[in-house]
Amino acid sequence: MYRFGEKMTISNTSTLAEIREVNLSYLLLAQRLLQEDRVSAMYRLGLSEQVAHVLTSLTLAQAVKVASSSHVLCRFRFDDHAILSSLADKGRSASLAHAHAAILLADSPVEQIG
């Protein structure tokens, strides 16, 4: 893991490039989903109206610049053990597991711009 002031190595450079790639993919996917069905996308991505507005207003150049952050922009939404367990439950049918996870996620707070 890179620490501030630490010399960059090939591995760190590769990791940062992978983070940028994930970030850009996420931003472009979020923009496409928001353009296709804004309400559904906001629910699926856990976004507030403010964040959705910012994402849809980004130009490609701005998205690339934002994606260049050394931090992963998307958040793993399965902090709750019940949600992850529901999706991973091999004993349930896939549709039932997804429905249960959707119900649990519906209670999750959306991301806000601070």
Automatic annotation (TrEMBL):
A Gene Ontology cellular-component term: cytoplasm
Coiled-coil intervals: none
InterPro entries: Flagellar_FlhD, FlhD_sf
Localization: Cytoplasm
Gene3D superfamilies documented for this protein: Flagellar transcriptional activator FlhD
A GO biological-process term: bacterial-type flagellum assembly
Gene Ontology MF: a single term: DNA binding
Keyword Disulfide bond: yes
Keywords linked to the UniProt accession: Activator, Bacterial flagellum biogenesis, Cytoplasm, Disulfide bond, DNA-binding, Transcription, Transcription regulation
Pfam families documented for this protein: FlhD
Domain of life: Bacteria
Family affiliation: Belongs to the FlhD family.
Domain statement: The C-terminal region contains a putative helix-turn-helix (HTH) motif, suggesting that this region may bind DNA.
The protein's role, per its UniProt record: Functions in complex with FlhC as a master transcriptional regulator that regulates transcription of several flagellar and non-flagellar operons by binding to their promoter region. Activates expression of class 2 flagellar genes, including fliA, which is a flagellum-specific sigma factor that turns on the class 3 genes. Also regulates genes whose products function in a variety of physiological pathways.
Oligomeric form and interacting partners: Homodimer; disulfide-linked. Forms a heterohexamer composed of two FlhC and four FlhD subunits. Each FlhC binds a FlhD dimer, forming a heterotrimer, and a hexamer assembles by dimerization of two heterotrimers.
This protein's name: Flagellar transcriptional regulator FlhD
